[in-house]
């Protein structure tokens, strides 16, 4: 069996922290005097915190000094951290633990590749940190997805060629980043949205061990 590198995004793939991000952005929008809808929040998927705030201020038609911008970035994160404070294993998305267990059993290297700057504390809270051989998150990268930087760093840290890596993503930008890196892209979500992915599953309950075995033996290069 070949050794691949399996790289997981965090939000919407392992846990659904998107709802907490939304609540924190909504609170900031309300504090600034405007509404921020669930539909508008779709624009924030897989996007850096800085870019999210730029979009939010654009929605609210608000001009900001650099000082205000920096303050609001911090405020949003403080609120978000309060929301995730009580996360536990019940927040792990269906069958994620089974897939991680199976990959570990087969001695496959596992990485996290996420824009989140809070990836490590979240993995600790839900009890999944020991599964990951390396964590590459918003603290380690300068270029946001669809730039493949986060996945290329993860592959390097796993000691695996990028063509031997498999990426699990729920955002279009993440799928594009994986494809740019020459990796196998597996979309978690809607096929109509993630149609650039090599394969798409609604969630991990749809992904059996036979498919995981195929991923381990595939040669994309």
Can you walk through the features of this model?
This protein is of the alpha/beta class. It has 2 domains: about 5-15 and about 90-215, Rossmann fold (3-Layer(aba) Sandwich); about 20-85, Putative phosphatase, domain 2 (DNA polymerase, domain 1, Orthogonal Bundle), CATH 1.10.150. It is built from 9 helices and 6 strands, in the order E-H-H-H-H-H-E-H-E-H-E-H-E-E-H. It has helices spanning about 20-30, 40, 50-60, 65-85, 95-105, 120-125, 150-160, 170-180, 210-215, and strands at about 5-10, 110-115, 135, 165-170, 185-190, 200. It has a 6-stranded parallel β-sheet. Strand 2 (about 110-115), helix 6 and strand 3 (about 135) form a beta-alpha-beta unit. About 40% of the residues are buried.
Shape: globular
Assign the CATH architecture of the largest domain.
3-Layer(aba) Sandwich
Overall tally of structural domains: 2
> Termini distance?
16 Å
Poorly predicted runs are: none
- The succession of helices and strands, N to C, reads EHHHHHEHEHEHEEH
Question: Gist?
Answer:
With 221 residues, the protein is α/β, with parallel strands linked by helices. 43% of the residues lie in helices and 11% in strands. The chain has helices at 18-31, 38-41, 49-59, 66-84, 96-105, 119-126, 149-158, 172-180, 209-217, and strands at 5-8, 110-113, 134-136, 165-169, 184-188, 199-201.
């Amino acid at each position: 069996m070949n050794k691949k590198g399996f790289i997981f995004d965090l939000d919407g793939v392992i846990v659904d922290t998107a709802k907490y991000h939304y609540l924190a952005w909504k609170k900031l929008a309300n504090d600034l005097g405007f509404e921020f809808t669930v539909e508008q929040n779709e624009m924030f998927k897989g996007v850096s915190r800085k870019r999210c705030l730029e979009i939010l201020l654009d929605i609210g038609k608000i001009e900001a000094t650099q000082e205000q911008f920096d303050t609001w970035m911090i405020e949003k994160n403080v609120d978000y951290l309060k929301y995730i404070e009580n996360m536990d294993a019940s927040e792990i998305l269906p069958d994620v633990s089974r897939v991680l267990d199976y990959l570990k059993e087969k001695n496959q290297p596992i990485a996290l590749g996420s824009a989140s700057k809070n990836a490590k504390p979240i993995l600790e809270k839900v009890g999944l940190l020991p599964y990951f051989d390396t964590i590459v998150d918003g603290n380690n990268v300068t270029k946001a997805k669809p730039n493949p930087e986060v996945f290329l760093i993860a592959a390097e840290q796993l000691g695996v060629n990028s063509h031997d890596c498999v990426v699990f993503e729920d955002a279009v930008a993440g799928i594009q980043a994986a494809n740019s890196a020459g990796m196998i892209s597996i979309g978690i979500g809607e096929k109509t949205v993630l149609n650039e992915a090599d394969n798409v599953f609604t969630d991990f309950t749809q992904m059996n061990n036979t498919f995981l075995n195929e991923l381990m033996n595939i040669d994309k290069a």
